[in-house]
Amino acid sequence: MKRTRISIPERGLKKKDIIDMMKQYGSEDPDYKKLRTWSLVYYLGEEHTRFLQEAYNLYFSANGLNPMVFKSLKRFETEVVDMTASLLRGDENVCGVMTAGGTESCLLAVKTYRDMARDKKPWIKKPEMIIPDTAHCAWEKGAKYFDVKTVRAPLDRNFRLDVNAVKKMITRRTIMILGSAPEYPYGIVDPIERLGEIAVKNGIPLHVDACVGGYMLPFVEELGYDVPPWDFRVPGVTSISADTHKYGFSAKGASTILYRDVNIMKYQIFVYENWPGGIFASMGILGTRPGGSIAAAWGALQAIGKKDYLKHAGESMEATRRLIDGINSIPQLEVNGSPTMSLISYRSTAKDVNIYVVGDQMVERGWQIERQQRPDCLHAMVTPLHRTVIKQYIADLKKSVRYAQEHPEAASIGDAAMYGMISRIPLRGMIKKNVVNMMMDFYGPQAKRPAVSDGDGVMEGAADGPDLAQKAGLWYLKLMDRLKRR
Ligand SMILES: Cc1ncc(COP(=O)(O)O)c(C=O)c1O
After folding, report:
1. Is the per-residue pLDDT at 285 higher than 70?
2. Is the residue at 50 inside a domain?
3. How far is the CA of 261 from the centre of ligand 1 (A)?
4. CB neighbours of 168 closer than 8 A, spacing ≥ 6?
């Protein structure tokens, strides 16, 4: 069915009505305020949120494009970088910039090291970067955008990066090595010290992706938890990315990338000197940069302070310990590896418990659940306030496991069937092609608006079709059917 295109209203609507509509549209979004989400949102409560909004609003219209215009923003940025550099044990030479998020920071590191290699190792025609199999997808994206080939290093049985494999992957074309602190899927800090040794020995830059751990691990370490060295104290680490909009608890749209030396950072700079509009220079990927998120990041660091970051780290770790103990106390489940901080994932060790059915059941019970693959597992990113819901989560998890055991048929229906299938489909290239088609459906001219109940049923334009995973699974079923009939 063709959808009617919406156009800008002839006359503006009443602002109050618009706000009501907006609230209505969000009424079925995940309930992060009730701690039902375990990813995407780092929520410290309404008081902190209101403070961030106030800080953001003060610089709502300010633009961080030109560092010489809004001097306030440049000051915030310089001070955020300074505070981060000292947190990450950088010396006086460490420098950096703020970006709009983790992905921008990762992309910039790829661009920097590619351009540095072009300058210093001009014989490299087909650059390669070695990244752990667990590296965030932003690194694959950066590699694609900047035409660098990724060489993915495997993990050992305990979900840890196999450093010996990294060593063997180094070639004359390697322009950078990546380690994560921690990686997203299992929450483990990669062996950065050993990567540093390899990097130094081979004269290759080493970036540490601490997008998720940058504002958490230093405090976790201070609390006495076992955190392997990963920051600028490690020789060989040439740059680190850390997101204020994750465990820095600032407003969305703020991250940092720091370099050991300005002579490395210079390869990140873009300048075009012949534009009729004037000479243009920028540090990041964006042009216009939202002043609000830069200001709110500064505000968050100032307002929370080391004492409360420590407190939040302690509470998150306590909640994580309870979550891990609760999961491991369920005989059919096991946490993957030994997570270093507050990101964990867990799988089923019982043949008769399908973990995706457990996931579906948790969703039925009101939790927002992230599914992962290789192995099939569920993920959770824990924040301080989650400590108030761990008991309920574990109680629901037990019920969900029991349900999965008593209903083996559930593995072949609903999301569980689709996720299970997708994780095992051997034709990965075809999956990719189909997902591109699905994204075209989502964003193309026929795109449907998501379903939002308006109280009397479903609003006009609502999507009634299956979600991405379901669609991929349905496509696979059709494909298998076709092959069988041949
Ligand atoms: C380790 C790591 N790197 C990079 C990113 C990308 O960050 P963003 O979503 O802010 O672009 C994430 C996001 O979760 C991450 O966990």
Report:
1. yes
2. no
3. 24
4. none
